Amino acid sequence: QVQLVESGGGLVQAGGSLRLSCAASGRTISTYTMGWFRQAPGKEREFVAGIIWSGGRTSYADPVKGRFTISRDNAKNTVYLQMNRLKPEDTAVYYCAADRGAYIGVVASTRGAYDYWGQGTQVTVSS
Question: Are 36 and 48 in contact (CB under 8 A)?
Fold first, then answer.
């Protein structure tokens, strides 16, 4: 079993930056694809970014391409989401997720592909 804990959310002005962290415990996530999702009030949870086990391939949703960067440090069992040039429409609860399939070389963008989820961290971007 893997436990995921997100941190780094908060209130920021439009144009600002935040760095989210997702710390895993219970077992290593070094073989897992990891993803970030977000859910705004009244909307479905949506894929934001993902990274394969080695860090050698990433994937981003179109609204965040060029502004967000996902990375991982397997030695620290942690995944990050650097968010730059934030917009009010980025306001949401951000969730970290793990796909427990080992050594998968692609990033899934569907919620059902992920087995473990964190509790989420709130990101609010003011205009």
Answer: yes
> For residue 32, what pLDDT band results from cuts at 50, 70 and 90?
very high
* Residue 50 neighbours by CB under 8 Å, 6+ apart: 33, 34, 35, 36, 58, 59, 70, 107, 108, 109
Q: CB of 67 within 8 A of CB of 11?
A: no
Whether the CB-CB separation of 57 and 48 falls below 8 Å is answered with: no
Helical segments of 35-99, H only: none
Closest CA to 107 of 2, 34, 44: 34
The predicted model gives 49-70 an average pLDDT of 97
3-state class of 56 per DSSP? coil
DSSP string, 17-49: -EEEEEEEESS--TTSEEEEEEE-TTS--EEEE
